[in-house]
């Protein structure tokens, strides 16, 4: 890895999705520490350094060719909307070789949306769990039967190979990577600059054919904000409904339409996310964190954290707490 900012190479192929292409530069450029120094250096390349067409009606004029992958710490392949990778599962040999070489020397490899087709064509997803946009799932399975595809999640991390679903899920994955690299404080600050939620779990379902609630003045937003300020307190469904000035039945139905979750599921997720933040950024004991997040007992927090991400609170803190990292160093 480089000693300066983490070097990211964004590999744009013909018919690259405009939003996917811009996502890494936008998100990673907002990751700065207390010293305001950039944590990432993001550059775009194409095969041969040639211009490529985007799906947004403009051409990409890169400053680099595939040689950029030779020194990149992370390589990101944005989605594409046409070409052999989508129709026959093939990519140019030089592109496949560059991607494989980058992975073999230790680079992290990522895809956004249908960029997973490119990684699969290079053989980097064989035997791995991966995801892509749900609308392309059947085509992906037909072209790449050796990949364990899960089209029902936002993103998947399989060792050094990371894949994400469509559009906004690419932003989620980039924020997740910042969080892995630099912790919650910098990731949350980056999310705020992007006006994005600081965390959506990768295992969260893609929003497939979900109806949009009819626009009215009634919303559960105020109740959700009220609850976020009181996670340490017992919160009943009736309390939430009263905050929204709705009956329990109406509130429950509208809440699910707006969030995709039941009020109980949403509240549990908020408490777990807050506990993770406190584990990463404070020296509070696990017992204190459990009480502050409304779990009541350490056992309840431990059980929920294990169900959500598969580790105990102490293990999670050792992984993400900056002071723990300094101690290990």
Strand-helix topology:
Elements: E1 6-11, H1 18-28, E2 40-45, E3 52-53, E4 59-60, E5 74-77, H2 84-87, H3 93-104, E6 108-111, H4 115-121, E7 129-130, H5 137-143, E8 148-149, E9 155-158, E10 161-164, H6 168-182, H7 184-193, H8 221-228, H9 237-243, H10 248-259, H11 263-281, H12 286-292, H13 298-309, H14 313-320, H15 322-328
Parallel strand pairs: 1-2, 1-5, 5-6, 6-10, 7-8
Antiparallel strand pairs: 3-4, 9-10
Helix pairs in contact: 1-6, 6-7, 8-9, 9-10, 11-13
Described by strand count, sense and barrel closure, the largest sheet is: 6 strands, mixed
Low-confidence runs (pLDDT<50, min 5 residues)? Answer: 202-217, 324-329
**What is the strand tally?**
10
Question: Please, what is the average pLDDT?
Answer: 88
Note the overall shape. globular
Distance between the termini: 17 Å
Query: How much helicity do the residues have?
Result: 40-55%
Looking at how many chains there are and whether they match, the oligomeric state comes to single chain
Number of helices: 15
Structural class: alpha/beta
- Reading the helices and strands in chain order gives EHEEEEHHEHEHEEEHHHHHHHHHH
Tell me the strand percentage band. 5-15%
């Amino acid at each position: 890895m480089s000693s300066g900012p983490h070097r990211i190479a964004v590999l744009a192929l013909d018919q690259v999705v405009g939003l996917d292409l811009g996502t890494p530069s936008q998100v990673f450029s907002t990751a700065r520490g207390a010293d305001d120094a950039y944590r990432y250096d993001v550059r775009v390349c194409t095969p041969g350094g040639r211009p490529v067409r985007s799906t947004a009606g403009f051409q990409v004029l890169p400053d680099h060719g595939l040689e950029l992958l030779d020194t990149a710490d992370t390589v990101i392949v944005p989605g594409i909307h046409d070409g052999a990778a989508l129709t026959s599962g093939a990519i140019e040999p030089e592109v496949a070789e560059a991607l494989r070489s980058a992975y073999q020397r230790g680079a992290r490899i990522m895809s956004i949306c249908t960029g997973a087709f490119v990684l699969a064509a290079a053989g980097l997803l064989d035997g791995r769990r991966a995801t892509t946009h749900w609308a392309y799932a059947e085509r992906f399975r037909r072209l790449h039967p050796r990949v364990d595809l899960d089209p029902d999640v936002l993103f998947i991390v399989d060792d050094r190979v990371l894949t994400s679903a469509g559009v906004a899920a690419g932003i989620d994955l980039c924020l997740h990577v910042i969080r892995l690299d630099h912790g919650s404080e910098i990731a949350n600050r980056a999310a705020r600059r992007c006006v994005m939620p600081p965390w959506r779990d990768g295992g969260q379902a893609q929003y497939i054919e979900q109806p949009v609630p009819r626009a009215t003045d009634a919303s559960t937003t105020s109740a959700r904000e009220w609850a976020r300020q009181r996670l340490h307190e017992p919160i009943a469904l009736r309390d939430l409904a009263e905050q929204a000035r709705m009956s329990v039945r109406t509130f429950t139905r509208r809440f699910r339409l707006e969030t995709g979750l039941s009020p109980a599921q949403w509240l549990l997720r908020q408490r777990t996310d807050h506990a993770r933040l406190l584990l990463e950024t404070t020296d509070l004991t696990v017992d204190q964190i459990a009480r502050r997040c409304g779990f009541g007992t350490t056992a309840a927090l431990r059980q929920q954290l294990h169900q959500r991400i598969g580790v105990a609170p102490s293990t999670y803190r050792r992984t993400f707490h900056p002071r723990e990292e300094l101690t290990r160093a």
